[in-house]
Amino acid sequence: MTKRNLIIIGSILLILIISVMISGVFTKMKKEPEKKLPEQIKRYIKAVPVKYETFHSELKATGRVATQNYIDLSAEVRGKILPGQIPLKKGQSFRKGQLLLKVYDKEAKLALKAHKSRFLNSLANILPDFKIDFKNSYNDWNTFFSNIDIEKDIPELPKIKSDKEKIYLAGRNILSDWYSIKSEEIVLRKYYIYAPFNGAFTEVYAEPGAIASPGVRIARLIRTDKLELEVPVETNNIHFLKTGQKIKIISSDKNEIFTGHILRISDFVDPKTQSVPIFIDISGRKNKRVYQGEYMTAVFSNITLENVFEIPREAVFNQNKVFVAEDGKLRKKSVVIQKLNEETLFFNGLPEGSMVVSEALINAVDNMDVEILK
To answer: pTM of the full predicted structure?
Structure first.
């Protein structure tokens, strides 16, 4: 590297060093900008003074009508399904005691008659012995024999008057045969299925001609003359209700009002609604037919609340917190909720005269400067 090149490089480095030094001097001479303190934002709010009073309120809840009874119909015997007194069809109504369907029973009837015939033969064989060995019981057993009709239910056994007589009857299978016949008679009645209440078929799974098997569903029945209204009630309001309490019911079209009463209050919370299901008997409605699945509104009235104050529900947050304005500042307070309505609630727990905020505040915090709108 020549002497000339070294001089050029040295000059450049010297110029850079001098430039840096001059820049540092000017930087120190520059005045720092003044830091501005953040302005305090004052928020305007709606607030009302707390004044406790006695209120007469009511509670409304809407729900759907359901039957008090429904069953899945199935046969206890096996055989071909035959028609009853009414069509086995979805939507078909029926009255209590009507024959819904029957199962082919001719084989079972013949088997029962054969069993009764064998039993008569056994009785005929022991009657001569009874006439000699059990004279006091002969007339009873002879009458029993005469009263047996294979087309009718077997009569009750005569009273056994001694252990010797019991041993004699047991040794000839008279007792076991009689109980077997009674059992077959009970089974034979199961071939006929009668309506247990006034109702209708909501589902039909097997029609006449199909084979019924024990335990297999044939149809689903609902009761139509005993209906109930299921409504959800928030847990805070359950203590106002009791079983048997009379309730005003408003029909779905709001053209009819009638009276029901509380049948049951559940001991659990429905996970879907987070409310307690209440069941109301509405069978007293006579002027117009009620249908399962119909919506109705229950009105629980005559609810008295003492020493409470009413504010909009939107003013309460975190379940039981409200804001109170004190000395131009916002303060978070807890309250005791006594009753929830659709849009308002009743509470106590604040000193009377406190200025409670009556609207929902977004991004509000403790100690925020506030001013109450006049």
So the answer is: 0.67
